[in-house]
Amino acid sequence: MGRSSKDKRDIYYRLAKEEGWRARSAFKLLQLDHEFNLFTGVHRAVDLCAAPGSWSQVLSRKLRGKEEQQEVKIVAVDLQAMAPLPGVTQIQGDITKVSTAQEIIRHFEGHPADLVVCDGAPDVTGLHDVDEYIQAQLLLAALNITTHVLKPEGTFVAKIFRGKDVTLLYSQLKIFFSSVTCSKPRSSRNSSIEAFVVCQNYSPPAGYVPNMSNPLLDHSYDVDFNQLEGPNRVIVPFLACGDLSAFDADRTYPLQLAEGKEYQYTPPTQPPIHPPYQQACQLRRDNQLSKEEAPSVCPSQDQDQDQTGTSS
């Protein structure tokens, strides 16, 4: 199949390249917006863990395409460098540092944000318990900086890995938002445990002061809360969003080539800038990756061979 293989296997990967999106994840935010109207009345938006920039692209196209585009300000934050985008201010910083929150507000000229989104995720290990825990910590870090920069009644959207302890995260988010919904866009693969929490109407408790060193409030949480059954059971609201007739992310689609035409590969819109694996790829091309050395023979075995001519 060559380069056409992934284009056949992943329709959203193919569409992202054809429509000029940096990653297929752009469709996830578009479908979330279609369901929740995330961009209505938004003039200041923050994209956390933004690289390679597909969600920032969506914000730029959707918000700056309106008449009041001169009033729209978009800030993208990531530890990695990201290729420039029109109308998007980039901050290469750490979302766990208060200085990053202060810089965001400075770009907004002292005003808080209307919308904060975060599509960040760790490099998954395949061990679901580990992956869920690390993702939960990343979500809480995003929530923490959001409490520094989001205006009252603002909206927060972030990736979450759905697991047995999702109700604990849900209880933390409900402290700060009156409406919290766990949603699965159509473009998110059914085989993936990822989903997105859409938190609306930011309303922190009275007297709450954001603090980077202590992101969560001390509150009573019953360890058996997730084990309740019957009418007492608390179920996290879950919504599958996106047109049900839209493309299935887990299905293979033909390339739909015109008769007599051959497949032409479309390169990604924007390759990553200085990705972590860049050095390893270069070493591999030059055949300079370190190789595991063969285990040496034990000295005792060498001595036995010298004395008897055979190993014991």
From TrEMBL:
<dbReference type="GO" id="GO:0005634">
    <property type="term" value="C:nucleus"/>
</dbReference>
<comment type="function">
    <text>Methylates the 2'-O-ribose of nucleotides at positions 32 and 34 of the tRNA anticodon loop of substrate tRNAs.</text>
</comment>
<dbReference type="GO" id="GO:0002181">
    <property type="term" value="P:cytoplasmic translation"/>
</dbReference>
<dbReference type="InterPro" id="IPR002877">
    <property type="entry name" value="RNA_MeTrfase_FtsJ_dom"/>
</dbReference>
<feature type="region of interest" description="Disordered">
    <location>
        <begin position="284"/>
        <end position="312"/>
    </location>
</feature>
<dbReference type="GO" id="GO:0106340">
    <property type="term" value="F:tRNA (guanosine(34)-2'-O)-methyltransferase activity"/>
</dbReference>
<feature type="binding site">
    <location>
        <position position="78"/>
    </location>
    <ligand>
        <name>S-adenosyl-L-methionine</name>
    </ligand>
</feature>
<dbReference type="InterPro" id="IPR028590">
    <property type="entry name" value="RNA_methyltr_E_TRM7"/>
</dbReference>
<feature type="binding site">
    <location>
        <position position="119"/>
    </location>
    <ligand>
        <name>S-adenosyl-L-methionine</name>
    </ligand>
</feature>
<dbReference type="InterPro" id="IPR050082">
    <property type="entry name" value="RNA_methyltr_RlmE"/>
</dbReference>
<dbReference type="InterPro" id="IPR015507">
    <property type="entry name" value="rRNA-MeTfrase_E"/>
</dbReference>
<keyword id="KW-0808">Transferase</keyword>
<keyword id="KW-0489">Methyltransferase</keyword>
<dbReference type="Pfam" id="PF01728">
    <property type="entry name" value="FtsJ"/>
</dbReference>
<feature type="binding site">
    <location>
        <position position="55"/>
    </location>
    <ligand>
        <name>S-adenosyl-L-methionine</name>
    </ligand>
</feature>
<keyword id="KW-0949">S-adenosyl-L-methionine</keyword>
<comment type="subunit">
    <text>Interacts with WDR6; the interaction is direct, and required for 2'-O-methylation of position 34 in substrate tRNAs.</text>
</comment>
<feature type="compositionally biased region" description="Basic and acidic residues">
    <location>
        <begin position="284"/>
        <end position="294"/>
    </location>
</feature>
<keyword id="KW-0819">tRNA processing</keyword>
<feature type="binding site">
    <location>
        <position position="53"/>
    </location>
    <ligand>
        <name>S-adenosyl-L-methionine</name>
    </ligand>
</feature>
<keyword id="KW-0963">Cytoplasm</keyword>
<comment type="similarity">
    <text>Belongs to the class I-like SAM-binding methyltransferase superfamily. RNA methyltransferase RlmE family. TRM7 subfamily.</text>
</comment>
<dbReference type="GO" id="GO:0002128">
    <property type="term" value="P:tRNA nucleoside ribose methylation"/>
</dbReference>
<protein>
    <recommendedName>
        <fullName>Putative tRNA (cytidine(32)/guanosine(34)-2'-O)-methyltransferase</fullName>
        <ecNumber>2.1.1.205</ecNumber>
    </recommendedName>
</protein>
<feature type="binding site">
    <location>
        <position position="94"/>
    </location>
    <ligand>
        <name>S-adenosyl-L-methionine</name>
    </ligand>
</feature>
<dbReference type="GO" id="GO:0005737">
    <property type="term" value="C:cytoplasm"/>
</dbReference>
<feature type="domain" description="Ribosomal RNA methyltransferase FtsJ">
    <location>
        <begin position="21"/>
        <end position="202"/>
    </location>
</feature>
<dbReference type="InterPro" id="IPR029063">
    <property type="entry name" value="SAM-dependent_MTases_sf"/>
</dbReference>
<feature type="active site" description="Proton acceptor">
    <location>
        <position position="159"/>
    </location>
</feature>
